[in-house]
Design brief:
By secondary structure, this protein is of the alpha/beta class. The chain has one domain: Rossmann fold (3-Layer(aba) Sandwich), CATH 3.40.50.150. Helices cover 24% and strands 17% of the residues. The N and C termini lie far apart (140 Å).
Length: 292
């Protein structure tokens, strides 16, 4: 069961909630910068962490689940929030370049379907940051804060869930090392600096970034036998075993052709030429005159 939007607003108005807003919002800025010229979606109850992005981004929209309720945001200005269904976000495909999910996955009845909708509305190569309560942190055991509700996640569990939703994890970080006590909110900055070095496993919040990767698929061709018409007058192949049709030769009458008389050659000269041009035993020369 989700926490009511009024309870979430009351927590972030307290000193501890303001410290949580500052610590988590700083990590989001480190991951995205100011998101200048980008379309940003704050899903769940993520509006406290996107105030800086609203100044430079092209568009910032807040979407809050119907079981949680919706509030007007930002206060005193034109409303930028809307009430949505978890498994049917009212946005076209690939609309947003950046999506921040906070207080959304832990209390969702179907976290996988919830993240599948995030994948659908995220642009190709777009990035999403999911903020969840850390399983080993103190905040997951405190029911006085919104992070003590629902299911906390470890880093491996969150990465596996994102991969099942076809989102590829690309980075992670931790925040909220201060104990979840309102009177200790003034030391939140000191706990944040010291805790990240001395006891990083006791952070209250886990932030994991994932990327939507799309790949071009080249369709495979299917082999198909093609019947080719054989020409009627194609020559038959020659070689062993090839049958050849008998060829009928038709005599062709030729006109008589006058030929010049061939010179008479002596038989002895031709025979001598075949034997290596030896002229022994030749009684006369080629011009018919006797040798002296």
């Amino acid at each position: 069961m989700r926490r009511d939007v009024l309870e979430l607003r009351q927590f972030y108005a307290s000193d501890l909630g303001k410290a949580a807003r500052a610590m988590v919002g700083r990590k989001v800025i480190e991951a995205w910068g100011d998101a200048r010229g980008l379309d940003v979606l704050a899903l769940g109850y993520a509006t406290p962490f996107v105030s800086v992005a609203r100044q430079a981004a092209r568009r910032v929209v807040g979407a809050m689940p119907a079981q949680q309720g919706v509030e007007i945001w930002p206060a005193g200005e034109a409303n930028l929030t809307t009430l949505v269904g978890e498994d049917s976000l009212p946005f076209p495909n690939a609309l947003f370049d950046r999506i921040l999910v906070a207080h959304g996955v832990e209390e969702s009845p179907d976290p996988l379907a919830f993240l599948r909708e995030v994948w659908r509305v995220l642009a190709p190569s777009g990035k999403v940051v999911v903020v969840v309560a850390a399983r080993n942190g103190l905040w997951a055991n405190s029911e006085k804060t919104p992070f003590g509700q629902g299911r906390p996640y470890s880093r491996s569990q969150m990465a596996e869930l994102l991969r099942e939703a076809e989102l590829e994890p690309s980075g992670w970080t931790r925040a909220l090392y201060v104990p979840p006590l309102n009177w200790m909110a003034g030391w939140a900055e000191g706990f944040e600096q010291t805790g990240s070095r001395l006891w990083p496993g006791f952070a209250g919040v886990l932030l994991m970034e994932a990327v939507k990767q799309t790949f071009a698929v080249k369709p495979k061709g299917h082999a198909q036998r093609v019947r080719r018409a054989r020409p009627l007058l194609a020559p038959s192949p020659s070689g062993a075993g090839a049958s050849q049709a008998p060829v009928t030769r038709i005599p062709v009458a030729r006109a008589p052709v006058s030929q010049a008389p061939k010179p008479m050659l002596r038989r002895g000269l031709l025979e001598a030429g075949r034997e290596g041009l030896s002229f022994e035993g030749v009684g006369s020369t080629a011009n018919g005159r006797a040798a002296p």
